Task: structure prediction
Amino acid sequence: MTSRYLAELISVGTELLRGEVTDTNAVYLASELPLLGIELQAMSTAADDREQLCQLLRQAMERSDLVIAGGGLGPTEDDLTRDCIASVLNEEMTVDPDLEQQLRAMFSRTGREMPAHNIKQAFIIPSAISLPNPRGTAPGWWVEKDNKTIVALPGPPRELKPMWKNEVIPRLRLRFPGEEILSRTIKTFVIAEARVSELVQPFFQSDNPTLGIYSHPDGIHIRMVARGDNARQLLDTTEAQLEEILAPHVWGKDNDTLEGIICGWLSRRGLTLATMEDGTGGLLANIIADTRESSNCYRGGLVVCSNETKAAWGVPPEVIEQHGTISAEVAAAMAVAVRERFSADFGLGTTPVASTDNPEGKQPGLAFIGVADANGTQTWQQNYPPTWEGVRNRAAISALFRLRERMIELKLNTS
Amino acid sequence: MTSRYLAELISVGTELLRGEVTDTNAVYLASELPLLGIELQAMSTAADDREQLCQLLRQAMERSDLVIAGGGLGPTEDDLTRDCIASVLNEEMTVDPDLEQQLRAMFSRTGREMPAHNIKQAFIIPSAISLPNPRGTAPGWWVEKDNKTIVALPGPPRELKPMWKNEVIPRLRLRFPGEEILSRTIKTFVIAEARVSELVQPFFQSDNPTLGIYSHPDGIHIRMVARGDNARQLLDTTEAQLEEILAPHVWGKDNDTLEGIICGWLSRRGLTLATMEDGTGGLLANIIADTRESSNCYRGGLVVCSNETKAAWGVPPEVIEQHGTISAEVAAAMAVAVRERFSADFGLGTTPVASTDNPEGKQPGLAFIGVADANGTQTWQQNYPPTWEGVRNRAAISALFRLRERMIELKLNTS
Result:
């Protein structure tokens, strides 16, 4: 096992503990670190409280090589990150004359006198160098001492991100040179998280690559992370093994999206798609239209929330009357109607999802999906947990998944 | 000052430390606690790692009255929250027969065999009672021991939120009784967060009520939280003052949604609405259809992503040719066309949002919204930051906001 670098992230600000602001810095920095071969082992949020922040810093420095603090670099009494780093390292803060000059210049450029308390932002300690902040008055700190590194960044994301990219990443690469780190994700659908976990159990024994299982709206994702010179080969081998085990459920990898894959297949053959939705109420159209690849293949969609409207757009009223609106027959008729109305090659239809008090007396949670193409129609029955929220999303993804299956059947899944 | 209860929040999941998922649970729970008179003093994120999670739990229990853990209740090897709580409290886990039966029933309802691993989700310890989870297989835990309370909630927000509301809040009120805490939220639109912050600055001096400013997709929300016997009166006074300052931007309060307000106004007068979308690609339809109130007033929607399709559904081709598809004229024509096609009282249209390389050479970020009614049409020009993401959402909310304005103009905003 080669050496790994461990990091810890501390977000500073009482407003975060009151739920007033979503901490987007944390998720941004957390997603950046694996690409540098640095493992983030903990994240925490501190109030603007000297004792708490100092304790968190001390604890983090004990167990990590790198500590990143976001926020608390402002000019007010409440901004304590600098003070606490100095205190934990037992160093004296002094005013850096260059920083002071830059600060005064920044204020005079906007025609203002520098408020007295802003001098705090020119403070420095012997172990720190300051990181320029072209977008604000708070410079960052890069601190190296006793084989530990501390990085202090300003809280506003528009100041933090460029400082991270331009000032911190290059220094981290030098400070923490490392082996190659690669990751790959396999995406599955129509299989439960627990079942995936059971199937891939043997792979959890390995610590290179390591495996992670994540539940997403478009199914269960399995992420492999491999290190070292043969990282790529490790990924290839593991991927092949996982694909064999999970075969019928795997639909994509890494940045693939269901809608992107489908639109890719359609566009390459000059084929088109249209949708008519009830149960998914526009969500299906929205998912498809959100993909850049859809501009060539997506003819458009209809959102029809009543039988009257369905009939007006070509669903035969007698089909609705005979089978009820939550039926395979109506899903098929919706797909056929929208395919015709939009002159598309494929039509996709979703019926309402039965609620607990549906007048048709259908089993709550029941819905149907229909796919129409030149050869006819296919329908699928879906059974969801009978709750209102979340069903739309699952139904929309299911509809895409069923269209994907049909396209594979028709051998249209060529790249 | 009355006694305060202290809480700590632990989010569990290696995926959070890898930046794969934004931790929306943390900000949600953090914003909820002040309403219960409970002060959140720390938040942290733990990997799916037994030692780390146990240590965090132990530390949190030492210094807080209430510890909330989110995530780690799944059925896999990685899901360690139950194990760690049991270990920290030195209690044995056993299978709860009722929970097991419920789990098996849940699987059999969807026609599946319960995977062996899922039995973990029926585990319980003597100090815990289980909290039902109608939306997933992971029940929560409510634990009381040695004057400390631990709450374990499932990670998926759609499971966590209802469990929090229905199961946890009532128990917290009993467990941590306090002075009366009331809150009220004022919702604004078309005003920047920094400007709101500037305008309400004087109110931040007060510590009863306290003010919080939250940025949401439907605008900036200002939340007042008041304590004590005269809490209601404090809220009334502050609300009146804030409404005076923010008047033209305020559209609702508390649980109001734009779509709910609009559908309420329409339904009460027996009026109907239809939508034709390009730039918002089905999102507008989805927002409206998602509201229960829409069943009586929303006739349906069209998603049209090409000029050809727009023309096929009644937008005169000469209007598109003369003004370009990103124009006030096309927005108006879309609103008129869909109003007619769906026999609705109001038609709402959204044009594409100009991208940096739009063939019409329009300024990137430009879009138009059209509203049609019996009296004619109105259009609005929108200018968004020219980035792809987020624009759809803002455009859909803007369209609703413009329809609201028009309905006020027509004096249809009566309850």
About this structure: The two ends of chain A are 39 Å apart (CA to CA). Chain A has three domains: 5-175, 181-253, 258-409.
